[in-house]
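Prompt: May I have another protein with tokenized structure?
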Amino acid sequence: MTLQWYPGHMTKARRELVALLPSQHFVIEVLDARLPLSSQNPMLAELRGNKPCVKVLTKSDLADPAMTALWIAHLQRETASKVFAFAATTNNPAYSRKMISIAAKKFGFVYRLGKPVRAVIAGVPNVGKSTLINVLMEHNVAATGDKPAVTKRQQRVELKDHTVLTDSPGMMWPKIEDERNAMRLAFAGSIPSTAIDFHTTAMISAEYVLEHYGTVVAARYKLDAVPDSPAALLTEIGRRRGGLRAGGAVDLHQASEIFIHDFRSGKLGAITLEQPPAAPDLGM
């Protein structure tokens, strides 16, 4: 399955990013720690070329910490000195600012009077770019939300160390040819339900989650055992969470919505949907 979800404003965002990149010292690419590979935009990698890149894994408090550590190690190894990677959390802004500063110095960029270090923040929709800006600034300067495409235009802020950051709108690539990537992005909320419906997203995502985090899921929904299929899981969620229609039929759409929102909010547990190549094979 090839997914095409590329709203018109993303064409404008791409054009503006292309115009901005030459004036930037490095790129900060924001990735969802629960899907660091699927949330990497291949178009962004092409646009930035050899420009240094800081890869920030946001939402790491919602991800499997052991897998996050493996991903950080993999990203650091992958492209040596041109990439610096770290995991950010909303409750430790000082750490995130420190890591951005360390990365800039590693790349050879230091503030000089009247000549600030400049970086653009980029990534797919709903991955946490604006939240990162707010964390770094220690107050809300960028609008955030739980739906894709909240940021519609570039916004520029200056940190205490005089690093100037530009927050760019979320940008997807025109065709997502890997169905697994598309489903992970939809499950995490980077692709709206108008492009992939909740039931399809939940069914495909639940297969992986049950296989690798089955006990976590059973604990969340107070099940005696791990369900043997995605359909069985959604049926149990519907029965236990008010998803029964007249006659006792389960509303699978409502059950799917509950499952997806529990994952996105972290109520389902600390879950990572993919692994770096060097990690033990988990089968997806």
User: Anything to note?
Assistant: The chain has two domains: 8-167, 197-265. The CA atoms of residues 239 and 247 lie 12 Å apart.
